[in-house]
Amino acid sequence: MISANMFIRCNSRRFMPSQVDEEAHQLSYLQKHMANILTLLADSVDGEGDDSMVLTMETFEHLGFLIHFSEGTPLSQAASFFANSDPDMPAAPVPAALVHDWILQHIASTLEFMAEKSSAKENSLQNASDPDVTMSDAVTNTRIHSSSPTGTSAPNNPGYYRNTTFVEGFSRTSVVKQASDMKGHSIKVLNCHDSVIYILAPLKYATVYGSSDTTIVLGAIGKVVKVEHCERVQIIAASKRICIANCRECTFYLGVNHQPLIVGDNHKLQVAPFNTYYPQLGEHLAQVGVDPNVNKWDQPFVLGVVDPHDSLSHPAGVSDVQAESATCLDPDLFTNFLIPSWFEPQGPTKYNPFTLPEVYWASQRKKHASLEDIQKNIRELEIDDNRKKELACALHAQFKDWLYASGNIRQLYCLQGE
């Protein structure tokens, strides 16, 4: 059981849940809804009761969107009922009830392990923050004390889980991280506000958590991007997958190979096609296996309902309702995002590698034509030097107002690394 004090900080919506709280919350959510999730994935076969619903190995792999054991290990190879299957012969389907029991067992082990770590940390008054606890971490530790097989191949080494680059606590600044700045294959952007964050590197995992009024560029993410508990952020991400949870008034400019997954309590989310590039982007996409010819940015998939008893995501006393999806950004509001060229001065990518839908192309052409007309009219104006200065001042003032109103002023903050 998880001790009650883990969630004391989260009883008020004024406080942002900690990472340990959020991870426990996510696992508890899966624990509660896994039966329904498996029902959606399972196939019906002849039979009665628990034997009438089965999962194939291919279908089982879809759960890797929600859980994973270790980097580079397919989920099916972590499960004893699919591990070591003959690659030349399709593995036999297994009862959904068996899969359900297996997953719940490991979720329970993980929650217990997290509670023990949290209690140990409080008792020892450690100053350093705990590393993220993954299911593989908990299962590996369970394996030490149990003779039951787990099927996981994650190393029993705490340093393995600290192999992550952190961008944390920045405010009113710009930060750039390139491949040479990365430690490991994961990036975590935590509690940044009113800033611009550039992550221009090929990575496997990215997490954006607890940030507001910030633009975050994620260059090439080969596994999944997770965005949680953010407000008024713009996420520009090229990734295989993205999962969005408990966010408000955020816009996502996406190049994603799979449907964006939306869970939890979200409000006023917008999605749009990917809108930028940098010279090394094409190479980075190839490195991590993201296909720029496939983009499902406009096909968000909403999972589950909002739980009225969940103090982390919804006020009490409200009936379960379908979680809110995202709307497509109005093409007239779509703009390209310019990454300053001094970040990556050389490289083969000269334009956005993701194809822009025609309706967005048309809007861009219209804006470009309007800009050319304005420039032409200004050049043809026959006015004296004093009037030219007045015009220049007026244009600069309008441009400054637009920078602040649009949030683009953040791109002009002094660049600062860690």
UniProtKB/TrEMBL annotation:
Main location group: cytoplasm
Highest taxon, organism lineage: Eukaryota
UniProt domain C-CAP/cofactor C-like: residue ranges: 149-290
GO (cellular component) term, any one: spindle pole
InterPro entries assigned: C-CAP_CF_C-like, CAP/MinC_C, CAP_C_sf, CARP_motif, TBCC1, Tubulin-bd_cofactor_C_dom
Database matches in Pfam families: TBCC
SUPFAM superfamilies membership: C-terminal domain of adenylylcyclase associated protein
Keywords assigned by UniProt, alphabetized: Cytoplasm, Cytoskeleton
Subcellular location(s) per record: Cytoplasm, Cytoskeleton, Microtubule organizing center, Centrosome; Cytoplasm, Cytoskeleton, Spindle pole
Keyword flag Cytoplasm: yes
Family recorded in the similarity comment: Belongs to the TBCC family.
Protein name as annotated: TBCC domain-containing protein 1
Organism: Urochloa decumbens
